[in-house]
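call fold target=6-phospho-beta-glucosidase
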Amino acid sequence: MKTYQFPEGFLWGGATAANQIEGGFREGNKGLNIADVLPGGKGRLKVLLEPGFNFEVNKEKYTYPNHEAIDFYHRYKEDIALFAEMGFKVFRMSIAWTRIFPNGNELEANEEGLAFYDRVFDELYKNGIEPVVTISHYEMPVNLVKKYGGWRSREVVTFFERYVTTIFNRYKGKVKYWMTFNEINSGLEFPIMGLGFAIKEESDKYQSTFQAYHHQFVASGIAVKLCREMMPDAKIGCMILYAPVYPYDCSPENVMYALEESRLFNYFCGDVQVRGEYPAFIKRYFKEHNIQLEIQEGDLELIKENTVDYIGFSYYMSRTEKIDKKPMDMGQGNILGGVINPFLKASDWGWAIDPLGLRITLNELYDRYRIPLFIVENGLGAKDEVAPDGTINDDYRIDYLRNHIKAMGEAIEDGVELMGYTPWGCIDLVSMSTGEMSKRYGFIFVDKQDDGSGTLERKKKKSFFWYKDVIATNGGKL
């Protein structure tokens, strides 16, 4: 088997999000965020579009798996010890905005929330692990959704700046790696999570979406500027969801269509946050969709002067496209749409499995931007079974990760500058897209079921010991 040489100091670890692991959704004076009102079940995102949905908790009608999640809020020491046993160099996590500012628009921060993350960061350092912190990960305060319409409102930029200033001041000696908005481009597919509003009228789609994006780009520029002023030794990146887009065939029309889809989804946000300006292709798109952004004086200069240090990104699947899609062509469960690729197998949830697509992704991103890349999400959601002897033999997950790490090694040989790798859901957590616990990603099994039952006991899967060896050998033993 070919061995790969990963850079010295490569950042091996794992990734999570506050709203999917913490629980304790009302403890420590925490306020309601979007994830708190998301019900469990495969149709959870569609619920937000129902007429009359008021972004409130309705336990008579729905279940809410995020409310307890895996109880990291109380069990973080136990979990961090397990991460340390695997040899994690870094742990990607997020700060819940509503633990710091429960309603999002307060003038004073919530000390209990700040103190909680102090304890988490201290425990990580005690175990030799650096935190990689996402500032906003699909958890906008519900108050900002209901009162201001999410990121459509310019006022939210001010609230975000207050939040960022607060956490930078508090944790400037404890966090060296930051990212601004999780999968910022995902708002093009499901704006409720990334942009803080639901599109209910097609006529409202384009103007609202891209005005909200402009406000996020301004907020990102502010965060980068503050980071450089307050923590000159820290690194701050953007974070995008990347899925290479393949044309279904060599028809020039399908090749062009795939290019246009890729530019809009994969490159639009990166171009603004890395290159510091709106790309030429989006200006044509604005013209064709009658989008006229409200841009305040100084916005474009702020964005241009405060570009990110690195690109964090998630990679789960590729996407195959053609113009004349028919229902029988569509992939089942491929969350970004597209048509079935006959050359690829799929996960239990219908997500295309494409390790070579990761090498393609790394090369496409590095060729375009020439700044360091960081794979901060990648993994296989699967149904794990506990054997009678208590073991969990997840060889399918090991195979999936091994093949993706090989692709990373090939990309490094191609000349790509890759900082690190933090597989998603290093410990089982609540699925964002479906609210299920049965869609498991972790090296660590958590005894929690879709119906809410379970002891929350942690168990090491076979992949736990495999990944421990991968880290110990810096990718030499796969």
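return ok
Residues 205-230 form the longest helix (26 residues). The first strand starts at residue 11 and ends at 15.
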